[in-house]
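User: Please predict the structure of the protein below. I'd like the answer in structure-token form so I can feed it into my own downstream comparison script.

Assistant: Understood. Taking the following sequence of 145 residues as input:
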Amino acid sequence: MRIRAALHSNDCLLTGFDLRKNPLIINRAYADPHGVTKRFNLNLLHRMNRELGAHSQIDKFDFYAYYDHREGEVLSYLVSTRPQKVMIEAFGQEVEFDSGELIFTEYSRKFNQQEIEKWSKESGFSIHKHFLDCKHYFCDSLWKI
């Protein structure tokens, strides 16, 4: 609603959505064979080490993602692969992890076109046009006031 209030009568909003698709496709995207998503999530530990003076041993964590197809939600986690303690100097605090303990790192929502249209209407917009990729995996949606 705050975006809508900042726009004028002839303005438009272009927004992008990751669309719901076969759960196998989504699971493969998060558990990709090249480990891109895993490295993206483990980068949080690298940043904590660098920016907060944390002493995380990156190789003692793994990555796990779960897709709930009913809700269209992907939940991503780092997983402690053993019991460990991580000192975070910026907070003067040591954090303990059990083996298998999860650290929630990312929430990603997938939408269908009906949800996009409902959301645009509830926000005071109308759909001018949807722009879809060739596989209909993603949608850029142009909304008008």
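That's the full token string. Residues 55 and 93 are 11 Å apart (CA to CA).
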